[in-house]
Design a protein that fits this description.
The protein is an alpha+beta fold. The chain has one domain. Helix content is 11%, strand content 17%. It has two helices and five strands; from the N terminus they run E-E-E-H-E-E-H. The strands form two sheets. A three-stranded antiparallel beta sheet has the order 1-3-4, with no helix packed on it. It is elongated and about 50 Å long.
């Protein structure tokens, strides 16, 4: 008799300003069904919605991080709340 277990793979985002397009909460990563081999699909972490994400920081990049203050002046990075 064989026992099989699976560990879900959650990939963390480098950009800390990503938000879920459904609920507006910060998205810290996603479940990657291709890497863990399950057929449950992908979803945003921690909210669990299966939709795209948007950055609330217009100037974020992986090298310099947020450059809004220098490039654009003060920009709000608060997530938009779903209605």
């Amino acid at each position: 008799m064989a026992t099989h277990t699976r560990t879900h793979v959650h990939v963390e985002f480098a950009n800390p300003y990503l938000t879920c397009d459904t609920c507006g909460e910060r998205a810290t990563g996603f479940h990657d069904s291709e890497r863990c081999g399950c057929d449950e699909g992908s979803w945003n972490e921690p909210c669990g919605h299966r939709v795209s994400i948007t950055s609330v920081c217009p100037s974020w990049n992986p090298v310099d991080g947020c450059t809004c203050q220098a490039d654009l002046g003060l920009v709000s990075h608060e997530p938009a709340r779903a209605a």
